[in-house]
């Protein structure tokens, strides 16, 4: 079986700065894959390349069987994406947000109806589907964004920090839904997170990115064992991201993460 | 088939924008204030200036289409702000990962600006009627006005989108937006005829798309008003300018996700 995502020496530079440096990833189908790393490590940049939002400077990648540079539209048809920032439109209702997505994916009216009903059911938002999204809690907005991203049953789902700023209950609600998406639709999920519990509980495989380079990949168990008998994922993270938690996030990154949290919280 | 798909994608974006417009009517009515001020204060005073060659119509009637064009310009030119806001949030990114055609997304936004423009038209018609300006209450000219307003809104909102794609931040956009609108307005035939301008300004005004919007409106809106270029040329130029803007904007728009 071919991998759902496969990258070869995928690289992105901004001027002379290399944000993602020659990464090779192989994400098996139907896995939940976690991309970890300190602020500014290049996680979002990698996801933006894989979702065709950003051109790679060099290297190649295949997503759901198509090359991200040569066949971006084919890739887009087969992926869902929830950005690190807030992507549901607060000035619209849940139904209106979902309808917009459904139309952009070319669904017929009949198909839209069943898929939107399914997505509302999935996200537990059926009751509030006619309320403006700006009145929602952070957890509800995240669930709506997930619903929007899964509406067209993508083969691969990209989630950039899906649980940032959420309380423990809302966070668990997102985890359950991600597991359901894999179970019920066979989706492959690639997510980034700063939450070691999330990485441990949810992900089959982890890759730790540091200054644009992948330091190590493996299952949570393997990674912990490689550091020491009593090691936690926190220890793994520290060991593979330069010894200490680095202060490498730029002002822009921190501002983005903060505004996301404000809007969600 | 693909054509069909293209327009459906545009319509999806426009419909979403329409929901927002309908939901926030206060914004619409606050936009009525400016045309009222121009027509009631500026218009009344300048009506006393006998030397402005306005042809067979009063000065007030002459400037009414110019004021409609102005409110179309002013409401469309800050469209980029909303797009920058959507970029900061991640809404642009969400639209761009969909398989929708980039120019369909841009067209959808432009058409929604057209809808806002139509509301401006209704407002200016109402003010003009109250001021007893002689308007052409016939179906074909009114349709011409609506079409011109939609095209004009599409041009300036897409122009605004292009600027947003280039400057990318709200602060820089506000600066540029302020700097652009006044020259666009004053270097046009909106409130005085081309003949009154010095030669260099005539050239600028001829290059200004706003002049063609005003020219078309002057013919279609006002009883006794005449187009200087002819409606066909006015609409032709506006359509061509919009098409060009659409192509440029569709190329730049994906850069917003970076
Ligand atoms: N458009 C851009 N122009 C210039 N530099 C950029 C751009 N986007 C990202 N960078 C830089 O690339 C580096 C990686 O950024 P990226 O957003 O991928 O990090 P991240 O791992 O997602 O961090 P975080 O955990 O804070 O979200 C950072 O140093 C960032 O400043
Ligand atoms: Mg990030």
Q: Biggest interface, which chains?
A: A-B, 32 and 27 residues
How does the major sheet of chain B shape up? Answer: none
Instruction: Summarize the biggest pleated sheet of chain A.
Output: 6 strands, mixed
Please give the number of β-strands of chain B: 0
Topology order of chain A in helix (H) and strand (E) letters: EEEEHEEHEHHHEHEHEEHHH
**Adjacency order of strands in the biggest sheet of chain A:** 7-8-9-4-10-11
Instruction: Let me know the average pLDDT of chain B.
Output: 92
- CATH architecture annotation name of chain A: 3-Layer(aba) Sandwich
> At the third CATH level, what is the topology name of chain A?
Rossmann fold
Could you state the order of secondary-structure elements of chain B as H and E?
HHHHHHHHHHHH
Structural class of chain A: alpha/beta
Count of separate structural domains of chain A: 1
Throw out a few tags for this protein.
heterodimer; A: 265 residues; alpha/beta; Rossmann fold; six-stranded mixed β-sheet; 10 helices; 11 strands; 22% strand; B: 258 residues; mainly alpha; globular; binds magnesium ion
